[in-house]
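Shape matters. As here.
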Amino acid sequence: MIFAIALTMAACGTQSTKENAKEMNTLTFTTEQAAFMSAIACNEAKADYTALAEAINGGLDAGLTVSQIKEALSQLYAYTGFPRSLNALGTLQKVLEQRQSEGKTTEEGVEASPLPSNYNALAQGTEVQTKLSGQPFNYAFCPAEDYYLKAHLFGDIFARDNLTHADRELITVSALSGLENVMPQLQAHVRGALNMGVTEEQLRDIPVALKAAGLQAEALRCEAAIAAAVDGKTDVVCAQSPWPIGEPNTAYAQYFIGNSYLAVLDPASGLCNVSFEPGCRNNWHVHHGAVQMLICVSGRGWYQEWGKEAIPLVPGTVIAVPEGVKHWHGAAKDSWMQHLTYHADAKPGNSNEWLEPVSDEQYGTLK
């Protein structure tokens, strides 16, 4: 099992989605199933089919049905594109073939009910979209797209009752968390999930599930969207920044207080984007044989040289760290911070000398 977590999502036991179709604003997954479904959706969006296969296997072992997973992967074509959706469905097929060869039990589940003869996709979709958005939404700039959203996505797809509307929004939020540069849509679906019956507690459990599945950057993106859309925070770097979060900066974690994340933008030049969570800072250190360039791109933070006052880091601040100067940099107490960094005037054999941490007392004086 790739999960060892205790979520608090509502569970519906062994009842089928079809039996609960009249209550479309309720999650129908058990606690464990919801966690696996979040991992399935996020890995589909990332096109990580090895991790997707692992999550599918775990989900099937936890009692997710083939129908539920198939429906989730089909729905996601509207958010992540046909290629990812089709490849993910192909991954599901391979997993099912492997499980059959190993004699593993797999529940097929129930298919969606036939639509009534008087079904009107546009009317149905308009009603669902209005509820999800909290108000009528008309994309007048592109009427064709407006029609596709209403009649097909929120009409034809959401009308299928083998997943509830709450189920579908959990899946959508989890998938959009796996995509970069779609924060407006992620925030909109965070709000939409609440409108469609996902509780705030259940919503906050999604990034918990993503972290448990090893999807750290994606979990941070989801947390940031929730902080912005639900908590009204405007200084959450991930909620507004187009710069990638990257992966946990484990190679240098011993030289940091708090968590940082590293995204290598250009391996040839060494250009990186470093993301610092609130309160995170690196130790005092010295660059020998090179000038370090720092360019703050989002959030708020600090840069300080030994014996001097700390300098605020805000978007647009550029610091050229002189060779041989003892210094540190990091985020403010209450804000994420991202900066680009690279070395200039690098001489052969250049190196970093890591020194003592910036104490809580020193850091606590910064306002």
User: Anything to note?
Assistant: The chain has 13 helices and 13 strands.
